[in-house]
Every structure is written in C-alpha cells, then in structure tokens.
Design brief:
With 119 residues, the chain is mostly helical. The protein is 51% helix and 9% strand. It contains six helices and three strands. The chain has a three-stranded antiparallel sheet. β1 and β2 form a beta hairpin. The longest helix has 21 residues.
C-alpha cells in the first residue's frame, strides 16, 4: 500500500493511537498476492490495525480493484469471502465456499454495527 492510496490522514491517526501499520512493516506484495494463503495472512495482520475501519471505508469508497484493505479481500472492486486458488476446484469446494460466505456475512454485520457500509 502506498502513501497516495492510504493518505496522510490514516498515518496520522495511526501515530496518534500509538500503533504501527502492518502494511508498512511487511512487504507490500503480501497485500496483493495471488496466493490465497498469503492473502489470509495479510487479513490476519489487519485485525489489530488501529486504522482498519478507515482503511476499509476508503477502499470501499474508491472501489479498490484488488488486494487486502482493512482486513478484507477485494476482487474486481467487491469484497469477497476468500480468494479462490487457480486450477480445478476441490470436491468439497461448495462446502468451503458456504463457510467462507457465512464468515463474510458475519463480518459484514459487524462492520454495519460499526457504521461501515459494505456493498
């Protein structure tokens, strides 16, 4: 994530809260990886970020085309439950997808309570 994409306001807010931004400490490629496991790791790093909700709100407003923003995976401007790996789907792919969709629905409800509109 670069300065122009996040903006100085989020950096200032993170400094005021005394926290460091994980996206500044780790390799930026992690947040834009093609590997689902790396994207899940990036999401986990966002969990305790002091500006997570502001980052997510900004990404939603900008319709970010891809990457991890505010602890969520964006693909083609939409929040997705998980990144699908390349290749043939697993036999239990439907069950895995249902679980991921349920988890995304729960996170969306939590964000709605926090005042973040996820479409």
């Amino acid at each position: 994530m670069t300065d122009t994409l996040i903006g100085p306001e989020l950096r200032e807010q993170a400094c005021e809260t005394g926290g460091d931004l994980p996206c500044r400490e780790y390799d930026a490629d992690l947040w834009f990886s093609e590997q689902p496991t790396e994207l899940e790791f990036a999401k986990s790093l966002c969990t305790d970020c002091p500006v997570r909700l502001d980052c997510l709100t900004g990404a939603l407003e900008r319709h970010e085309p891809w990457g991890v923003w505010g602890g969520e995976i964006f693909e083609k401007g939409n929040v997705v439950a998980r990144k699908r790996p390349r290749g043939r789907p697993r036999k239990d792919a439907a069950l895995i997808e249902q679980a991921a969709e349920a988890e995304l629905a729960a996170r969306t409800r939590e964000l709605a309570i926090a005042g973040v509109s996820v479409s």
